[in-house]
Protein: Suppressor of fused protein (SUFU)
Amino acid sequence: MTEVVGRFLEDRLGTTPQRASVTFLGVEPIDVLRFAAGDRPTVVYVTSGCARHPMSDPTDLHADPVRGPRAELVVRMSSGTPLPGLHKRMATLAAAPAVEGLIIAADALVDLGEPLWDGSPFTAVLLEADELGIVELPEPMDPVTMLRAIPITANEAAWVRLKGADALREAWREAEIDVTRPDRASATPA
Structure:
């Protein structure tokens, strides 16, 4: 599974990634792949391992071990700024379906309760479909959806809970906020 995702990403992004592996007790390792090309304005981080198994409700005693939603997380950030610890937090997010039974999908808000990288004002992510698309798997497995995890502040997370993901996206558009900048301002939706 992880090999299929890795080949897909290398083909789509046109470069070989750097790889960091994070292990959690009782869970298979989660890799975080970092794709950066010298002339590329963004660095792309992608988890590999979240989609090993389909996501299911942890209370479902008869969950299908083959069919069901699968996803990997993508973070796109402007290049040139160090983001220490990002790979560990991404691995934590990617392990949440196996550890906590979390089913991640587009428009979901996932709050870490800690900075997404050391010193970051962003403590949560808002998920949406990423331009990488989906990774087809052999039948009968469902495809892997690549979900972009956009770093957001605690105030933005509160806004999503109150008004929804689309309202926050609209606030970003109106304020012309570049969500790939690690030093961006927090949106102040009206």
